[in-house]
């Protein structure tokens, strides 16, 4: 489990097709120093297992289904990926509960530079609309963000300079594909209520 507080970014060094999977090698100086084979790392909000690593580089195997359902279908060498290690039981919960299980990909509609930071408008698919609330939390490329505004088919987030400097959000332009994971608590509540109604 993660919190959506990005700890580093990594540059994609290589991509290799392995039939039904994609092998991705990343470089992020010092970030993988305490990682081991099999450890989980959030890559742009997608929970992936470390296949092998050094202190500065790590290789991940991404299954075909994950590639097709995330922004990794447009991955390319030289692109930057947001990275976060799993949250520890004794660490601060700086963002919100992020599972690393992406719901879908959405497109950036507009980016508006402001005097401080930027505002970004993104698509909001109809099937996710009910899980998104104004002033609620949402994970975009693994970044825990607050929904500033919500319309029928779009949402807006406001980005402070600190977040811009630490993430790949600085590279977003209209048309950029972004991994989205809505707040899981709403989905659990909905599922519980459905099951209870069926039982009654």
From TrEMBL:
Q: What GO molecular function annotations does the UniProt record carry, in alphabetical order?
A: riboflavin synthase activity
Q: What is its EC number?
A: 2.5.1.9
A single Pfam family it belongs to is Lum_binding
Q: Which reaction does it catalyse?
A: 2 6,7-dimethyl-8-(1-D-ribityl)lumazine + H(+) = 5-amino-6-(D-ribitylamino)uracil + riboflavin
Q: Which InterPro entries match?
A: ATP_synth_asu-like_sf, Lumazine-bd, Lumazine-bd_dom, Riboflavin_synthase-like_b-brl
Q: The Lumazine-binding domain covers which part of the protein?
A: 1-96, 97-193
Q: Which UniProt keyword terms apply here?
A: Repeat, Riboflavin biosynthesis, Transferase
Q: Return the Lumazine-binding repeat spans.
A: 1-96, 97-193
Enumerate the Gene Ontology biological process terms: riboflavin biosynthetic process
* Repeat keyword on record: yes
Q: What does the record give as its pathway?
A: Cofactor biosynthesis; riboflavin biosynthesis; riboflavin from 2-hydroxy-3-oxobutyl phosphate and 5-amino-6-(D-ribitylamino)uracil: step 2/2
Coiled coil regions in record: none
The record describes the protein's role as: Catalyzes the dismutation of two molecules of 6,7-dimethyl-8-ribityllumazine, resulting in the formation of riboflavin and 5-amino-6-(D-ribitylamino)uracil.
* Record protein name field: Riboflavin synthase
Q: Which source organism does the UniProt entry give?
A: Fibrobacter intestinalis
Its organism's taxonomic lineage begins at: Bacteria, Pseudomonadati, Fibrobacterota, Fibrobacteria, Fibrobacterales
